[in-house]
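Reading a protein record of the kind used here takes little practice once its layout is understood. An example of such a record is reproduced below.
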Amino acid sequence: MAQALTRPWHAVRGAWQRSIQVRVITATLALSLIVVILLGTTLMRQISDGLLETKADSAVADASAGVDYAQRNLDAAADTASGSWSPLLSDITQSLTNRGNQPGSDALYEVVMLGSEDNAVQLASPGIPLEWVPGVIPETLREHVRGEERVFHTYTAIPDTSSGAPTGEIPALAVGGQVTAPTGDEYELYYLFPLTEQQAAIDLVRTALVTAGLLLLLLLGALAWLVTRQVVTPVRLAARIAERFSAGNLSERMAVRGRDDLARLAASFNQMAASLQHQIGQLEELSRMQQQFVSDVSHELRTPLTTVRMAADVLHESRETFDPVVHRSAELLQAQLDRFEALLNDLLEISRFDAGAAVLNAERHDLRDLVQSVIDAAEPLAERKGSQIVQEMPNHQCVAEIDSRRIERVLRNLVVNAVEHGEGNDVIVRVAADDNAVAVSVRDYGVGLKPGESSLVFHRFWRADRARARTTGGTGLGLSISLEDARLHGGWLQAWGEPGAGSQFRLTLPRRAGEDITTSPLTLVPADANDLGNGRLGVGGPYQSVTRTEAETPGPGAPEGTGRTGASDGAGTTGTTDAPHATGATDPQGSGSADAEVTRGG
């Protein structure tokens, strides 16, 4: 039910966010509506006040003349007995009523004569029954009339008997004054003026203003739609053509009509598109030639490398019979040939990725077995470096559909790099899994990564410190190939680092090859990152940088905050959804950390 109620609101908000035309028309109509309401209210008030003031002036004048007429008749009476005033008062009331009756039309007013509290005289014209008098003539008006000898008026309402029975109320103007008999008795004379004509005029003006306001709103809305359509349509056309252009249809162009600003925009867009097409063509040709060159050179070097390898093997096996200088030369030749062969193999692998020829041979494997195999192979290097490789693996299986050869190569690169750059500190390898993904994180406590380097480590031939010697013979392509292997599986390979606090790499793979993943069982930013960073840096907040590959860009349905994050400056931090301080943070051990096995190697 709640979703059904919020669906129209989401549709309206989506249209507001997507369409400039909707926003312009809505803003125009809103501002126009405010202006129309203010203008209509002002006009209605002025017109109503004018009509009522005119009627009030006329009514006060008629009532004043009636009061004077009644007072003259009372003053001219010769009889001083108070009980004999009733016939005269009745004649005066009837005479005043007849003045307001015009043949063939409704009465202009009704007349009411009321005595004081001691003189209970109540006279009224035929249109006003006496029982209506207390409700028709307000008590406040009577108090003013009794208190001062002048004419007062106020607005009131009288029952509507046009259909034979009271069915509503008619607005009226009550005007009253005081008359005094020669004996000193005081009487109140009231005129009741129906305001039907004024009400009808006000209703007519109100209807006219509402109709004119609606027509004006429609006109302004139509004008806004027409104007914005003339402007937005070329922009939308340019957006569609740009989308086709970005999709690879480089021959798309905008139609140029006329010589106005929009025509110049279309012409400039076409010139830009033509220039981009030329530049992209050149880059594609250059990239194709580069890829072809790398592939050809890599294949062509195979034959001479095999020959040199055979000769070097012979020299290396006979090195004990050589003098010390030649002996050392044979060992150096063998080591550099190993490194050259590894570089050649990496170049061939990169050329396969560039050509789109890499094939994924996915089978179900327990990721813990691959991690254990890689750790066992890296133990000799860790011993030489004085490091220990700490394993934190769950007791349950972490099975996923993976290409074991490629994933083992990724893990080997991560572990060997951590040991080599760990400055003799421990290297922690964590494994975790949830319903949708499996993950491995490799944490070292070495020099870490400087601001911005977490996005550069995956570039080809990039080195964090070019002055450092590569004692293990790295080629500079390991992380680039690892990133491509992760993308081939539909997974993520991410890096985090702080200067002086070490670094952590996290590999996240879907349980089923090719499926989209939105979260990882392990956090990318370690739980101890802030403490180590603050302790070692000693200034401000530690730098935190998170790099996400294109493969992990969240798709539909991904939680908020799982997009890319950039690097901050040295004093700031950039968090992610996986960071310990961010929303949706998970335990650094990941799912299954409660029953994880921790073993120490080396």
Remarks:
- The first helix runs from residue 2 to 18.
- The chain has three domains: 7-206, 253-358, 361-529.
- The first strand starts at residue 110 and ends at 115.
- Residues 382 and 419 are 6 Å apart (CA to CA).
